[in-house]
Design a protein that fits this description.
The protein is mainly β. 5% of the residues lie in helices and 40% in strands.
């Protein structure tokens, strides 16, 4: 029940999965910004924010019913839409890694690779929900206990994700995880943004800045080679704001391999784990401006190259290729097999913690 009608949290029962109730939670701040998240997949369902004329639009891709996240057609080609992906986000080469001399064989769902933890990752399970007032912000707190061996990973991993919406138009995500056996952890949210409004055909005119001097190039299977490649004089140089479309069709071999941008950038940090600016995005037509802050060392910038028009979104329009982009704040892909990358090992007695903020304004 909302006491303050300008700042509240409500929920709607939308179905059941595995005998567990699934809800859509709606958070609204004093300026009228609205965030909808679900405990199915810890999914960001919608995010409404006004343009320079005061007209609100939903700026994340997604679906208006639980069934569309789960039916066969959507399930097979639903590209992790808005969900929390884990326990290890991004790709692990060969679907295998070794930790403490134990070989872990994972589910392969991306050719020979394990992508976002296999066939049934964190984006396809029901999380235990509760609501809470955290730092004066109404928040949705979601917890999932991943059993030892799920997807091939070792250890029982207890993960909590907190979604908050502040009166400063900040959408905040906090992650926390603990384990009872050594394991690897890499958590992110896979929201697709279109600052013109979901259902708009293209994000190529979006102006992007990424605070990184280097990115991690990939091989022909889209697994990082282990190198750090300078963005200087490449279409991967977003240190100064530039449109997505300016370089996406360049014949650079990395863009050809990914059919566009689908790479990890090495964020500039003064100190490991500090909350700092990772990226920005601006839609000149609407004036919407998004800043991304994170404690993570990297961000996967993905331009929706593999979206298929079989996916029909909330506005009734198909989600075609490059109609949404992702800023997936994260540790680096294939880190368990790349000792030179930031460590992703979590051991008993340790706590994985991470924070990301998406802040919105008009320009």
């Amino acid at each position: 029940m909302c006491v303050d009608k300008q700042k509240c949290l409500t929920r709607q029962l939308v179905g059941e999965v595995d005998d567990k109730k699934v809800y859509f939670y709606y958070l609204t701040n004093k300026s009228g910004m609205e965030l909808c998240v679900s405990n199915y997949g810890a999914t960001v369902v919608s995010l409404k924010y006004p343009d320079i004329n005061g007209v609100p639009a939903d700026i994340v891709l997604g679906f208006d019913t639980l069934d569309k996240y789960r039916n066969d057609t959507y399930f097979e080609c639903n590209p992790f839409m808005g969900g929390v992906v884990g326990r290890f986000a991004n790709r692990i080469g060969g679907g295998v890694y070794t930790l403490d001399d134990i070989v872990y064989k994972l589910e392969k769902n991306n050719g020979q690779n394990c992508l976002h933890s296999g066939i049934r990752g964190f984006d396809k399970v029901v999380w235990d929900p509760m609501t809470s007032l955290i730092d004066t912000c109404e928040s949705v707190v979601l917890t999932y206990i991943s059993p030892d061996g799920e997807g091939g990973f070792g250890g029982t991993l207890t993960t909590t994700v907190i979604y908050s919406l502040t009166d400063n138009n900040e959408f905040r995500i906090s992650y926390r995880a603990t384990t009872d056996k050594p394991t690897v952890v890499n958590l992110t949210n896979h929201a697709y943004f279109n600052l013109s409004g979901e259902g708009s055909e293209s994000v190529l005119d979006t102006v992007v800045m990424i605070n990184a001097d280097y990115f991690t190039p990939s091989d022909f299977l889209q697994i990082p080679t282990g190198e750090f490649m300078s963005v200087e004089n490449t279409p991967f140089d977003f240190r100064k704001p530039i449109t997505i479309g300016a370089g996406i069709n360049n014949i650079h071999d990395q863009l050809v391999l990914g059919n566009g941008y689908d790479h990890n950038w090495v964020l500039k940090k003064e100190r490991d784990g500090e909350l700092s600016l990772a990226a920005t995005a601006h839609d000149p037509s609407s004036g919407r401006f998004m800043e991304v802050f994170t404690t993570e060392p990297g961000v996967q910038f993905y331009t929706g190259n593999n979206l298929k028009d079989a996916l029909v979104g909330k506005s009734g329009k198909p989600y075609i290729a490059r109609s949404g982009f992702c800023f997936e704040t994260q540790h680096f892909p294939d880190s368990p097999n790349k000792p030179q990358f930031p460590n992703t090992v979590l051991r008993p007695g340790e706590t994985f913690e991470s924070s990301t903020i998406y802040k919105f304004s008009l320009r």
